[in-house]
Amino acid sequence: MTDSVRDLLIVGLRDAHAMENQAEELMERQVDRLTDYPDIHSRLERHLAETRTQKKRLEDCLESCGESPSSIKDMAMSFTGNLAALGHAMANDEVLKNTFANDAFEHYEIAAYKSLLTLCSLSGMNGLAPALQESLREEEQMAKWVEDNVEKVTRDFVTRQRSTAGVAGVAS
User: Of 30, 40, 117, 157, which sits most exposed with the smallest number of CB within 10 A?
Assistant: First the structure.
């Protein structure tokens, strides 16, 4: 059973690497477009740096298992991240849609890291746990920041809309 759990852990690490590729693509697009929201811009830049470090941690975990990331999964998830960012960019309320998506994505990442930590324990590969726990901690902090700022982002968006074109122009 340990070998099959180890195999599942490897698949999970590759999936997590691809997930972080997707997160990187999403945040790069958001950082480029959210300069009018300095708090969000600053926090996303910081989390983008964390995401790049998380990818490196996952690469190190895979390397310590004699494995490597999946180029196909990475490419597919990067493409998906770009499509999602493009879809939100066309919306008048892009900042709100990004906030909602970021909240959901952070929780997805949290669940993925918790699962990886369980697989580390079940496979006896506990040496990988500290790196994964660090990434989990960063994702939990980002999720909390997003949750704590939904109301502020919404208020800032409405204020900006009122001062430029009026709230009646808000897309649904």
Answer: 117
Provide the domain limits for residue 143: 2-166
Give pTM, 2 decimals.
Answer: 0.86
Indicate which CATH number applies to the domain containing 47: 1.20.1260.10
Structure tokens at 170: 């808000």
Beta carbons of 157 and 95 less than 8 angstroms apart: yes
